[in-house]
Amino acid sequence: MKQTKYLFIFLLTILSATSCKDSKHASKETDQTVTEVSFLQKIKELFPTAEITALEKSDHFAEVYQMILKEPLDHSNPAAGSFDHYVYLSHVDYNKPTVIVTEGYSAKQRTNELSKILKSNQVIVEYRFYGKSRPEPMPWKYLTNDQAVEDYHGLVTKLKSLYPKKWISTGISKGGETVLIYKSKYPEDIDVAVPYVAPLINGREDARTEEHINSVGTEECRAKVTKFQRLLLSNRKAVLAEIEKHATEKKMGFTKVSQEEALEYAALEFPFSFWQWGGKCEDIPGESASAEELFKYVDKIVGISFYSDKTYHDLLPSYYQHMLELGYYGFDTTPVKDLIKIVFEPTNLRFAPKDVEMTYNPEYIKNVRDYVENKGNHILYINGEYDTWGACAPTPKPNVDALKMVLKGGSHKTRIKHFSQEDQKKIYDKLQSWLGSDVELSPIPQPEESVSK
């Protein structure tokens, strides 16, 4: 009887211990479930003062957010205040690479070509003082490339606590130029840089763009471009009537730049834009073209809205930067000098803010070029042969581990997908060697084509 009693107590003890152990194990699992931190919680902890809004998911991303950061106006003096800085963060996996897109102008949520290739996380940063990140009134003295670079550096430094794998920076045109500036200032922030159609410009008016315009394509096509410029201004009255009609239909104002001045600047701009955007010689209207046809073509290539009040206002930050640090291109009046009535001395200063100090610093971009051409490893340059900005593209020295790809006949719209299969393999092989074998590269997607000047 005693033995039965002791056996019962022994079994009860074992069952109790097992139950207690299972209970503790279940409790531990429950605690893990409760304490698991979501991606949204993590970014809220990283950016406690940011306004964060969920956006619709697209492509391979699991979560997409718009973040409005309280960015310092002056990173060396927080007391100067802050501005609302728009950033778009798309998450897929903490163990994937991360692509940061340094927009040169305003920004919106979209999937970058490299993000599709790498199936990566993505960060799109609107350039300070552009688009929705523009404070009013505009504190011009804080619109410098160095301040913008500090925006990126601070953001990347924080996000690396979430994304410890490879980082790739990319941007198009002015955004690509920003990629190179950032790389020159903080080379360790980024593993690979991919600037698309990015110039590094010599001076406020880089003569290399005019040399390009006067040598690219065939002599016959260049002559046709010049003839079209002259047709625009020879038919001034009728073309101006078309501009007026168009402006009325589209409700465009021309109080900052008159319609007649806009016509002359558009005529002077035409060769640059024609080659930049890959114009086709066979499409250029000839002598028999009507005023409507002449207007529609210049509007297609240059865009008369480029001189409207809205665009004038939107691009003030751009012209400020170009006239201060970045440099720009000039205008050759030679082909139409006898037809000019207003713009006798054309200059891009015409579109820059008035009553603001702008002393051009020729050393700024020179220093960036010296770095990327002589020390800029792991940079993939994507350029188009006919693109006018290609005349200002940097060329890495042979000893630098970089790759410059120029698409034959390509324009400012050139992307990786436009290259031949053989050249795409060359690009992929180079990216793979820089990123490592554990990073998977997907087949070339169809990229978005929309870019700004």
Describe this protein's structure.
The termini are far apart. This protein is an alpha/beta fold. Helix 3 links the parallel strand 4 and strand 5. Helices cover 41% and strands 12% of the residues. The N terminus is likely disordered. It has a 7-stranded mixed sheet, sandwiched between helices. Strands 8-9 form a two-stranded parallel ribbon. The chain is globular, with a radius of gyration of 28 Å.
What's the layout of helices and strands?
Blueprint: H1 2-35, H2 39-46, E1 51-55, E2 63-72, E3 82-91, E4 98-102, H3 113-118, E5 121-125, H4 145-159, E6 167-172, H5 174-185, E7 192-196, H6 207-213, H7 219-234, H8 236-250, H9 259-276, H10 291-301, H11 309-314, H12 316-326, H13 363-375, E8 380-384, E9 403-407, H14 421-435
Parallel strand pairs: 4-5, 4-6, 6-7, 8-9
Antiparallel strand pairs: 1-2, 2-3, 3-5
Helix pairs in contact: 4-5, 5-13, 7-9, 8-10
Low-confidence stretches: 1-34
Look at the helices and sheets and give the structural class.
Answer: alpha/beta
Radius of gyration: 28 Å
**How large is the count of helical segments?**
14
H/E element sequence: HHEEEEHEHEHEHHHHHHHHEEH
Q: Which overall shape is indicated by the principal axes computed on the Cα atoms?
A: globular
Largest sheet: 7 strands, mixed
Mean pLDDT score? 92
Give the strand line-up of the largest sheet. 1-2-3-5-4-6-7
The span between the termini is 97 Å
Give the beta-strand count.
Answer: 9
**How much of the sequence is in beta strands?**
5-15%
Helix content: 40-55%
